[in-house]
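re the bet — no i am not wrong, look at it urself. input seq straight from the record:
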Amino acid sequence: MSDMPRGFVLFFLFVLGSCIGSFLNVCIHRFPAKRRLRDQLWALNSHSSGCPRCATAIQWRDNIPLLGWLMLRGRCRSCRLPISMRYPLVELLTAVLFVVVYQCEMPVNFWGGVETAGLSSFDGPQTVRTLQSPVLWLHVRYGLHIAMVCCLIVATFIDLELWIIPDGSTVPLMLSAVLVHTIFGQCWIVPLWFQDASIAATLRSALPEGVSWLMFMWDASPFAAQQPHLHGFLVSTAGLVAGGGIVWLVRIIGAYVLRREAMGFGDVVLMAMIGSVIGWQPVIVVFFAAPVLAIGVAILSLVLRRRDEIPYGPWLSLAALLLLLFWNNVWPMAERLFDMGPFLLLMGLVMTVLLYATLHLMQLVRRLLGMSAESEVQALEDDGIPIIYPAERSDPTAGLWDRSMWPGVRSGQGLSQSYGWRRGGGP
């Protein structure tokens, strides 16, 4: 597409994005009905779409993205049941993001040099020379990033409604990202490791002799050039481990202090997926940007609804999207932090202690506001089986005889800790 008119390419991407958005609506609708990853993926081909009231199959002309909903005026052709506004919204959002991400990441003139590309802080195509041309490299990376955007859309809309993030929206891309990074070797936007030599030297002289050896120096550029495929694999797996690991650590500390689930297991897998695509340094930036984006909504929820919980997946997704769109503005500020190299380990330890103290402070504030230390789930009794309000997360085994279940199901819903305490054992 490098030699095609820019307007034609953008129009093609808009149409393609709206069609992909229609498929994402199917994922949003069908994934939550299944618990296992295999069943979620199989559900996509199980049957054709139909009206939930009259079961009438949707005709092909009604399935045209955006236009189909408008021609039907938002109602089923047979029974006139209202069709959710979510369907055209997801199609339009996906189509717009296909265009916007392309505009942000692709150079206007391919033959003028890749330095005009949006994600150009590290000159991957010229630093790492493999069989792939810069044009191919940029399109593969764009495809990988837009696939992540699609998964973020699915995870966001499901999490907003049901407070869960199904594996179908994260695990397939997470595994595919590692494979793509390994095959092409240069889909990264930040190399595996870099640091400022002057900062390392200054810290080495300032630290005690027993720990000064931690300020080592390693330049990853020769390694990336000589072993591009191994470097790509390490970039992706390091991002996977860092993204999932940092949320897992918060989850463990939060459960210990708050005596309940602080973050669901779905958030762990979501961040692991994001990290496998963009690498470990950018995913850490996403982790710290998400609370800044969510703080306003969290405060409103606490003050107006007296609830200290919000679905966190949408804010992680938004932070990852904004990082891609505004990379050249965000990265110069974040790069100063990563220039410190191994000193980041010490900073991470300090921030972990601060997190522990902050959560204790939050518990104190909740008590001062007269809020219970334990989250309460409003429920009604119907023949001895609790009926949980739709806005609440429900234990699928509530009111039933105990039965075995993969722990990830309850973890993804933020219920494993409370389930273990209720049963006096593990999840």
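see?? The chain has three domains: 1-35+56-103, 106-363, 392-427. told u. also Residues 228-258 form the longest helix (31 residues). so pay up
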